[in-house]
Amino acid sequence: MTNKSRKQLYLYFAWLVSVIATLGSLYFSEILHYIPCELCWYQRIIMYPLALILGIATFTNDINVKKYVLPLSLIGWCISLFHYLEQKVPGFAKLKACADGVPCDAAYINWLGFITIPFLALIAFTLISIFMIILRKK
Prior knowledge:
The protein is mainly α. It has a single domain, classed as Bromodomain-like, CATH 1.20.1550. It is 70% helix and 0% strand. The chain crosses the membrane at residues 9-29, 41-61, 68-85, 111-135.
């Protein structure tokens, strides 16, 4: 496998992760009727365009997209980490007052005692960031 085909594969995987994350968030809100909190909206504001940007880059083989995707992904990662800590660390939720609507420390799902929606977003942003870092290094 050539270096160029590896890069295209990493780009494809990053796009696949962003599409799965986007469809997952739409499933939670549109099918299961979970109302997103404020921090969920911020994560969506970053993830949804990543699915589009990475999709276009994948089909045009534009490896240079990494310089636009990585900063967005790292910002999304920070928001997801903060959101997850708000849910799982006692006292962390008090750092930011909740706006009207759904509180940010509420957990619709809690699979295996630690997998929540912000955790799933954190994993997606982590994978996308790793793929973009690998693209930078090669």
